[in-house]
Amino acid sequence: MKVTVITGSPHKKGTTALLADKMIEGAQEAGHEVFRFDAAFENVKPCLACEYCSSHDGECVHKDSMSDFSHQLVEAELIVFVTPLYYFGMSAQIKAVIDRFHASNAKIAGSKKAMLLAASYGPDDWTMTALEKMYESMLRFLNWEDAGKLLATGCPVREVLEQTDFPQKAYEMGKALK
Ligand SMILES: Cc1cc2nc3c(=O)[nH]c(=O)nc-3n(C[C@H](O)[C@H](O)[C@H](O)COP(=O)(O)O)c2cc1C
Question: Could you tell me which residue ranges the NADPH-dependent FMN reductase-like domain spans (predicted)?
Fold first, then answer.
């Protein structure tokens, strides 16, 4: 399967980077082809809502990292969203990528799977509720199938995450992909 992983943290060695690494490790061991897009280290301008894409066959008015990545998105069979929780939602870095889906909606809707990996400081069971709702609404809109969620609550830093079973769970989610 062609797997595209989009990460949203500016921490190269943070909590969600570890979740992404582990999921990718499992997926590659299971024979899947993985492409990783670290949004915080790419040039992704915010959507201007100019609708240039509507009259240019999905081509965006911005010429930046999304120009190549949008082709990758179309090809992907599974898209994995990996984000730290920022004010109860995704980070701005990954949200900017998602907003740019707008230009490709017609090409990417339907017949894809998605996965959500997230980490938060807060340990409460409601900590990720808004994030989950946003993710589920996005999948419903795009007609994508959920392939799993891993919500690592109570993990402010990598050292804490490493003491939990979340990294192992991320690995197993990758390994179990079909
Ligand atoms: C700008 C910002 C906003 C945050 N908002 C929340 C939040 O709403 N709830 C929460 O539990 N943790 C919040 N956190 C904590 C991060 O989600 C948490 O530390 C996470 O493990 C960081 O992941 P990373 O190391 O991959 O960047 C926030 C951190 C930052 C920097």
Answer: 1-123
